[in-house]
Design goal:
The chain has helices spanning 2-27, 29-35, 38-59, 62-70, 76-107, 113-135, 139-162, 169-190, 203-213, 216-237, 240-249, 253-273, 280-313, 325-348, 351-376, 378-399, 410-429, 436-449, 451-464. It is mostly helical. Helix 13 (280-313) packs antiparallel against helix 18. The longest helix has 34 residues, at 280-313. It starts with a helix and ends with a helix.
Length: 465
C-alpha cells in the first residue's frame, strides 16, 4: 500500500504539471487551426517529427541511461560520474553532428534547415537536464519545467503571430525559446555545475550505458517511424493538406496520451525501483488493473466527446478530423499498454525486448500503409497505427514472461473493448444533438469502473490534510 500511495503522490505531482502544460497547448489549437492553413500546419508537423527522429541517433539514448542509473544511485560522487559521462558524449556528438549538418546545408540548402538544427540542439539539451532532474529526485522541479516550457511556448507564439505576424517560423522560434528557458531554469535550480567534473569521466560506465541504451535507439526510432512514416505516406499519396487534417485528428487522442504521460512518468520510476522486490508481479498486476480501467473508460468518453469538441473548437476546414479519432484513440490505448510493459523492461534492464517489439510494430505499420492507403485514405493510416501498437503490445506481453508477469482481467478487458467499439458506432451514427445520451452513459461507466482508484486518491488527500 505504501508503494501505491507513493505512486499516487508522484502521479498527482506529474499530473498537475502535465495537465497545466498540455491544457495551454490544447487551448491554442483553435488559434492554430484558424490562423494557419492545413498546408502550413502539416509542414510544421512533419518538420517537428523529423527533427525529433534524429535525437536518438545523436544522443545514443544516453539521456535514458543517465536517468536509469541516477534514480537508484545514492552516492553523490557516483551521480557526478554518471552525469558527466553522459553529458560529455552527448556534447561531443552534438558538435560532430553540427559540423556534418552545416556541410550538408551549405551544399544543399533546406527550407528552415538552420532553424531546425538549432531547435534540435536546444531540445536535446533541455531533455537531458529534465531527465537529470527526474533521476536526481527533483520531481517538483521536473514537473514545473513542463509547465514553464508550455507557458513560454504559448506566450511566444501568440506574440510572434499577433505582433510580428510570422507564419510557420513562429512555431520554430517559440519552441527554441522555450527550450532555452528550460535549460537556464533547470541549470540554476539544480546548481548543475556541481554535477559536472570531467575528471570523473568513465569509459567503463559508458560501456554499461551503451549496453543498456543502444537497443533503445532502434526501438525509439521504430516508435517514431510509426508516426513519421504515416506523415510521409500521407504527403506522398494524399497531399500536405491531408497531413494537416491528420495532425489535428491526433490532437483529440492527445488527451488520452496526456493522461498516459502523467501516469507513465511516475510508473516508470516505481517499476524500476520495485523491480528487485519479491512481490513485483503482484504489485505490477494490481497497478495495471487500475491503469487499464482508467485508460479504457477514458477512450470511451473521449470518443463520444470528439465530435462536439471538434465542432466547437476547431476551424471549419478541419471538421472532418473527428472521423479518424476513434481508431486513433484505440491505437493510443495500445500504445499506453506498450509503455506500461516497457517500464518493466527498463526495470529489468532488458531493453533488447523493447527494440525487437518496436521493430515488429513499425514493420506492421509500414506494410498496412503500403497496401491500403491508396484505397482507404486516412483511414488506412489510422488503422495501421492501431494494429501496429496492438502487435507490439502482444509481443511485449509474451517477451516479458521471463522477467515479470502481469495478470490481465480478461472479462473486463473484453467488456470494455465492446464499450469502445459501441462508442465508435454511436459517434458515427447518432446526430450531434443526440449524443448527450451516450455521453452520460460514458461518464457513468468512467465513474463506476474507476471508483476504487478515486477512493485511493481521496484517502491520499485526507492523509495530506
Amino acid at each position: 500500500m505504501t508503494e501505491k500511495r507513493t505512486l499516487i503522490k508522484d502521479t498527482i505531482l506529474y499530473g498537475v504539471a502535465n495537465l497545466g502544460s498540455k491544457l495551454l497547448i490544447f487551448l491554442l489549437l483553435p488559434l492554430y487551426t484558424r490562423y494557419f492553413t492545413t498546408e502550413e500546419y502539416g509542414l510544421w508537423d512533419v518538420v517537428l517529427t523529423t527533427t525529433t527522429l534524429l535525437a536518438p541517433f545523436i544522443t545514443f539514448e544516453l539521456t535514458a541511461a543517465v536517468y536509469r542509473w541516477l534514480i537508484v544511485e545514492k552516492m553523490e560522487e557516483e551521480k557526478v560520474k554518471i552525469i558527466t559521462t553522459g553529458l560529455a558524449v552527448i556534447i561531443r556528438n552534438l558538435l560532430v553532428f553540427g559540423v556534418l549538418a552545416a556541410i550538408v546545408l551549405l551544399i544543399y540548402p533546406i527550407p528552415y534547415g538552420w532553424t531546425a538544427l538549432l531547435l534540435l540542439y536546444t531540445m536535446i539539451l533541455s531533455s537531458f537536464l529534465q531527465q537529470c532532474a527526474r533521476g536526481l529526485g527533483y520531481n517538483k522541479l521536473f514537473a514545473s519545467l513542463g509547465i514553464i516550457q508550455s507557458a513560454v511556448t504559448a506566450m511566444a507564439i501568440i506574440l510572434l503571430i499577433f505582433v510580428f505576424e510570422l507564419r510557420v517560423e513562429a512555431f520554430f522560434y517559440s519552441a527554441i525559446l522555450a527550450s532555452v528557458v528550460v535549460i537556464f531554469v533547470a541549470w540554476i535550480a539544480m546548481d548543475f555545475n556541481k554535477y559536472i567534473s570531467f575528471y570523473t569521466y568513465s569509459k567503463e560506465l559508458l560501456g554499461d550505458f551503451f549496453v543498456y541504451a543502444l537497443p533503445i535507439i532502434p526501438g525509439a526510432v521504430s516508435w517514431w517511424v510509426m508516426n513519421l512514416s504515416d506523415r510521409y505516406f500521407i504527403i506522398a499519396f494524399l497531399g500536405v493538406e491531408a497531413n494537416g487534417l491528420y495532425a489535428v485528428a491526433n490532437k483529440i487522442p492527445a488527451l488520452l496520451v496526456m493522461v498516459n504521460t502523467v501516469f507513465s512518468l511516475a510508473w516508470k520510476d516505481h517499476a524500476i525501483l520495485s523491480y528487485d522486490s519479491a512481490e513485483k508481479n503482484t504489485y505490477y498486476s494490481s497497478v495495471f488493473q487500475h491503469f487499464f480501467r482508467l485508460m479504457a473508460t477514458s477512450v470511451v468518453l473521449i470518443i463520444l466527446l470528439a465530435k462536439p469538441l471538434i465542432d466547437i473548437f476547431i476551424g471549419e476546414a478541419f471538421h472532418d478530423a473527428w472521423k479518424y479519432t476513434g481508431i486513433l484513440l484505440i491505437g493510443a490505448l495500445f500504445s499506453a499498454l506498450c509503455q506500461f510493459w516497457g517500464a518493466g523492461f527498463h526495470g529489468a534492464k532488458k531493453t533488447r525486448a523493447i527494440f525487437l517489439t518496436s521493430i515488429a510494430g513499425a514493420g506492421v505499420n509500414i506494410l498496412i500503409n503500403v497496401l491500403f492507403i491508396k484505397y482507404w485514405g486516412l483511414y488506412a493510416v489510422a488503422v495501421s497505427t492501431m494494429i501496429a501498437f496492438l502487435v507490439m503490445w502482444v509481443f511485449r506481453v509474451y517477451a516479458a514472461r521471463s522477467y515479470f508477469v502481469i495478470d490481465i482481467e480478461y472479462w473486463h478487458f473484453v467488456l470494455l473493448s465492446l464499450f469502445i467499439i459501441g462508442s465508435i458506432f454511436a459517434s458515427l451514427s447518432i446526430p450531434l444533438v443526440s449524443l448527450w445520451v451516450p455521453i452520460i452513459i460514458g461518464v457513468l461507466l468512467f465513474i463506476i469502473y474507476n471508483y476504487k482508484s478515486f477512493q485511493l486518491l481521496w484517502q491520499h488527500f485526507k492523509k495530506v490534510k
